[in-house]
Amino acid sequence: MTHGVIGSVNALIGGLFLLTSFAMVATRQVRGCLGQFVYQSILLAASALLIGGSTASWHLVAVGLITLITKPILIPWLLRRTVPERIFTRREVALTVNATTSLLIALGLAVLSYFIARSLLFAAAADFAAVNLPIGIAGLLLGGYTLTVRREAVPQLIAILTMENSAFFAGIAIAPDLSIIAELAVAFDALVLAFVIGLLTRLIHERAGHTEVARLAELREEAKR
Amino acid sequence: MTARILYNLLQVLVVMAFAPLMAGINARLKEIVQSKRGPSIFQPYRDLWKLFHKDEVVSKRASWIFRVTPYIAFVAPLFVAMLIPVLTSYPLFFAFMGDMLGGGFILALAGFFACLAAVDAGNPYGPMGASRTRMVSFLVEPVFMIVFFTVSFVAGSTIPYIVQQRWVASPADFFAPSHVLIVLAFLMIIIAETGRIPVDNPAGHFELAMIDESKGLEYSGTGAALMKWGGEMKAFVLMCIFLNVLVTPWGLAATTSVDAVLLAIPLVLLKMLGLIVVLVIVESSLAKLRLFRISEFLGAAFVTAVVAMIARLFAL
Amino acid sequence: MILIAIFVLPIAAAAVAMIEHRVAPAVTVAAALAAFGLAVHVGLTVAAGGSIAGIPGWIAADGLSALLLLLISFVGVTGAVFSVGYMARSGSDRRLRGYYASYNLFLASILAVPLLAELSMVWIAVELTTLFSVFLVGYTGDHAALEAAWKYAVLTLMGAAIALLGFLILFWGLRAAGGTAFTWDGVRNAAPGMTPALLGTAFLLILVGFGTKVGLVPLHTWLPDAHSQAPTPVCLLLSGVETSAVLYVILRLIPLAAGVGSGVWAQVFGLISVGAAAFLLLQVRDYKRLFAFSTVEHMGIILTAAGFGSGGAAYGATYQLLAHAVTKSFAFLAAGLVLLAMGTREIDQVRGLIRRSPLAGAAVLVGGLAIAGAPPFVVFLSEFSILRAGIGAGYYLAVGLLGLFVVIAFFGIMWHVARMAFGRPPEGMEPVRLPVSARIAVAIAGIPVVALGMYLPGPLHALLRLAAEALSR
Questions:
Q1: pLDDT for A109-160, tens place per residue?
Q2: Touching check for C147 and chain A: CB below 8 Å?
């Protein structure tokens, strides 16, 4: 993409965004996951502001500003209010798949998403999409993978938020003029999501004494002991 | 022609002369960061001087490997210094004798002999440290290969001088994600190969926890001096590759005039000072990893390198 | 205006319920009834060929939307009436206030899905249906309920994120093909000109993403848990109409993406779901899970029918939507009565219902027969029309598989239900008095189950035809 400096900086932001997705796959601590999510949201806002500034679209600038306010600031605040503080200081005891193998699987998923994005980009072109689309798809797949291998509640929630972040990262390049009401509503929806799931986590913690949701496995068809 | 040979030798002398200085600055900065005064930056020179004037004590059970290893450990980085750009940006006399892969193998040769010697001495801590060093080295290898193949793919050649001219061709390239990620991956390699926190604690004296330090445990006198100096030179050489080839290929002599080459010496040292500051910050803010977490650290380095490669291949 | 009022009424009821908790049940029932009345009006107007004014580009209602509005509001009414008596004995007033507010918000969000024409808002409405129902699913607060709520929340939100990317790619394709408005009409007009790669990817992502919420196998693992642990009135909404509302989104996309093989994907996913559900429900131990698996089965049947693509199959699909909504809600109401009568959800511990509580026994028998597809109930007619349309369209293998799975499911459901209804009741239990509101709700819900099997009113038939037009190519 011949966008010069802005293109390179956007590519840099994309690279760092991908790195935060990888970091989230392998981090053991809840606080670490939350930190990666904050960095990722800041990078998303930066990319939106950059693309919006370069294509002179106030839409995207507004999206960037909204993201900057809701995701790095409000969501962690909400989580700290709803989820008991003790959970943030705990370290996740074990990942379902160990960190190194997870990283390699994540790498495979990232390569896969680059291929998918390439075939999509052959079909249609969009400004900046050469960077944002593959990284968005990769973030989505990595978030889904993180969700399946995590055992704790808050990392699973952060994985969902990451998936939405990544879909948005791709969206600011391929769908830049989505109506502003939709963008506002999606941002609001992310807040409600964090609030609801945070409250649910608190309920689970109160009831079960832990938030290791992988251990809650009573409902199934086999004979109950 | 003679100029090139002379400059090549000058390069080697620079590496020999300034490697202990860099190690001294590193140690002092780390202490300053911890609010202590720290040893003088010339302390490594005094240590080498002292060690060269001491007697050597060699175990009766040691074989020729034990005696030969310090010399190999000393000479290997010097050979690599002949191959990489230290002062000049144009290839010198020995530049085409080996490429980056060859340089990597030479350093690995020194490491191999160091491990053999550690086992040779019969000290129980030697093999423990040797096996750990091997583990770290073999995990670093894939990362090194991938970094190496990425930059060579872009430059179309594996000779460091040519890579240096092509890799960061313009300031805009500096921010390209593949560049940033390669830098990150190589930084992690340097940390692992030179035995810094978070992989290993260079200031530790606890043999059970030593990884890289254990290779120098058994030596005394000249042997110890050569091993120490060799280790400092290895670090210097790796940092040179990092700076002059990957990160900041500027400030090197572009002409064959003596002034330009002599001017390049303080510039290189200045760049290295910057890198040492970054390394000190990294070392002072992290904690040493548990042994089996090192594979995760290097796995992260591997992933970073591969992502850099993908980013470059898909022309980001 | 009317369309906006339909979903604003329950929101207003939620607000009132939070402020003044004593009138919460009454206000909920009133709002649901009002929404139902408006939906009937909308349905009659649309069926007679007229059109309803909405906000162009944002809110509109055609035949399919009107049908869904009718179904959602009807189930909302029965659920609200049932809640009055059922929930009165299960919580303090403060908690009940939260329950009624959530119920209203949940109902409003499901009502919004067929009403919205702008696709991004449709996604948001589907997200909101999940978010507002999470606490309803976990209402009882015990381990199993919280586990069900967690799995429900996490899996459906993950699916929604995947579908978000699908919608964004759809938008991209729309813009690349020169379209302007991101509405159902806009996409339908631009679909023939859209790049197949983009359209296909978007369709697959939305199928997989929203398919999680519909309960398509293999992403259905949350459904039996959530639909069995939730309180019965909530199960009505969840099983009866929420999955159908999300399926509606997928159904609208199938003819649009016909050029990229959407019919085949729909059939494949649909058949897998029907088959898996039919086998899985043979070994359930909990009768609410039985009905939940039956929901998965019916969603699969509807999806397969939509995949056939012919006009007759589309009519069958909309007929099945109608049949499933009224019958499944009735079945869950029956399950609620059984729970009140016997106090347990285990099939093994429920015996001789007919003797213990005739109403519960009869209801569960009728519900089981109806949902399994026995004549003369309406599900039989709709399944038969789907099979016939499939044969007419030439999909013999698919129809054969469908028929086989439906028969297996029929036997599974009937075996479990018969074991519960007949036999010797457990010792030492007196006959149980069921709350009045529960009986009223069952009676209301039972009317269409029995009546529609024998007679389909003219306007309803016209509405189904109009809805089928939106589904066929």
A1: 998 998 888 888 887 777 788 888 999 999 999 999 999 888 888 889 999 9
A2: yes
Q: Are B190 and B184 in contact (CB under 8 A)?
A: no
Q: Which of C147, C164, C201 sits opposite A216 (nearest CB)?
A: C147
Q: Which two tokens stand for residue B261?
A: 């080459």
CA A130 to chain B, closest CA, distance in angstroms equals: 7
Is residue A206 packed enough to be buried (19+ CB in 10 Å), middle (13-18) or exposed (0-12)?
exposed
- Tell me if residue C391 falls in helix, strand or coil: helix
Q: pLDDT-based confidence at C303, cuts 50/70/90?
A: very high
Residue A225: the pLDDT is 41
Rounded CA-CA distance B51/C449 in Å is 98
* Rg of the Cα atoms in chain A: 18
**Residues on chain C touching A217 (C-beta within 8 angstroms):** 147
Q: Indicate the pTM of the whole model.
A: 0.87
pLDDT tens digits, one per residue of A187-224: 888 888 888 888 888 888 888 777 777 777 766 665 54
Cα A217–A219–A221 angle (5° rounding)? 120
Which residues, including other chains, have CB under 8 Å from residue A11's CB and lie 6 or more apart?
A: A131, B175, B176, B177, B311, B316
Q: Give the residue on A whose Cα is nearest the Cα of B299.
A: A100
**Cβ density class B204-227: b for 16+ within 10 Å, e for less:** eeeeebbbbbbbbbbbebbbbbbb
Domain count, chain C: 1
One-letter identity of residue C91: G
Q: What are the angstrom distances between the C-alpha of C233 and each of C105, C108, C298?
A: 14, 15, 20
Alpha carbon distance B74, A40 (integer Å): 45
Cα-based torsion angle of the residue sequence B254, B257, B262, B264 in order, rounded to the nearest 10 degrees? -10
Which residues form the domain of C340? 2-471
